[in-house]
């Protein structure tokens, strides 16, 4: 087992406090959960140098933002003792601590037992649980007459159930992309139903066992950078009829990740490479290659062939370069906007 520098000890159901646990002092027992949430510009309870001691002594659950408090409830219901929340486990007014901890994100999310995703929440006060109308008269059937087969009863469902998660507030944030891909299990709280995903399957309340293949779309990101999944999902015929060598699959997966990443919003422009560094570390485990500001040395001639999209983004802006340096101009990371 591997543990983050700090975790929240959520105690048991009758406890009114949670406590900050520094794992170097005493190693936790059992697994831990993580929370993906959107800060949203609202007031967020943070761990800072001034309240570090008081966090170790205990924080009242009723003083937590709603999303955090409900994440504690979920952790307890799953009989897990520890929870990791970035704003409460990284010292937010310490540049040194933030830099150190940001380099551990690949491990934090790769070793979590389950990632709780506040997918539909605009900020930490929006919560995970929400009132929603029940799915009416589910399941849905319709009788159709098909020429070759006569009358058939057909099952009707939304064609891209899992893909609809991409349009929810959390999944539009750049930092969250690696939080979707790295964990082995994800539980997403959408505005209509719960979704869950692991290395083998995706499910939801409408389809508890597994989603129909056509409902997954390209949004099943969490499984897509396992070596076997890369081979399964990215093997294709070129126009000449030749197969792409398996050694190239991780690089294609990286291009796919970057394409998705560049459509997501980032509050601090200087975080462009940091916020995807966990995924770069995961890819680097599949290839013996040098990572160069978002590109890979052995594929450098090919990966230099990128261009800026002229499309207007969702916030009304077009692609541009930030005024302050953050990457060489030959790297896509030097651009703000779609490529």
Automatic annotation (TrEMBL):
Residues 32-179 form the Heterokaryon incompatibility domain. It comes from Hyaloscypha bicolor E. InterPro entries: HET. This is HET-domain-containing protein. PANTHER family: DOMAIN PROTEIN, PUTATIVE-RELATED, TOL. Transmembrane segments: none annotated.
